Amino acid sequence: MTNWPERNLLEEAAALLAALQARGLTLATAESCTGGLVSAALTAIPGSSATVLAGYVVYSNDAKQRMLGVPASLIATHGAVSEPVARAMADGALADSGAGLSVSITGIAGPGGATADKPVGLVHFAAARRGGPTLARHHVFPGDRDAVRGASLAEALRLLAEAGEVTS
């Protein structure tokens, strides 16, 4: 991974942080397949500590349960890569961090881990806002592991902007 994250994503992260700061919103991230890339992009921006309160890297199911309060039954029923788990991760990050906004990412970056129902590149996202609805979406991104993770970072920034009702 050269020049990671890409310069345009860092510019997007900076614009998002400025808009969130102007609105007085704080945020937390809950990341699985991105392994902290969203937090890394956000905290690469000087002054990000005014907005970014916490970042959770919850790669294992146990970490999702212990750190974010994702019910084991939810993972057993839907799998770790699912909309219900993404929503629970975002809600857990919001509750634990005290932030006003959170984003979660859970997916299959590859090259392994895929099933017939859940291909490589499938990523579920959720964004929760205190006092507002939790937004969720999913994508199947093409490409290798780096491409899936990079596309996931970009989508997480877009979803944060949407949930925070800002333009970045």
Helix and strand succession? HEHEHHHEEEH
Q: How many domains?
A: 1
DSSP summary: helix tally: 6
The end-to-end distance, rounded to whole angstroms, is 25 Å
Helical proportion? 40-55%
Tell me which CATH architecture applies here: Alpha-Beta Complex
Total count of strands: 5
Strand-residue proportion: 15-25%
Oligomer: single chain
Protein name: CinA family protein
Transmembrane segments: 40-59
Pfam family, one: CinA
Domain CinA C-terminal: 14-162
Overview of the structural elements:
The chain is an alpha/beta fold. It is 43% helix and 19% strand. It contains six helices and five strands, in the order H-E-H-E-H-H-H-E-E-E-H. The protein has a five-stranded mixed sheet, sandwiched between helices. Helix 2 links the parallel strand 1 (27-31) and strand 2 (52-57). The longest helix is centred in the C-terminal third of the chain and has 19 residues, at 145-163. It starts with 6 loop residues before the first helix and ends in a 5-residue tail after the last helix. The model has no long low-confidence stretch (mean pLDDT 94).
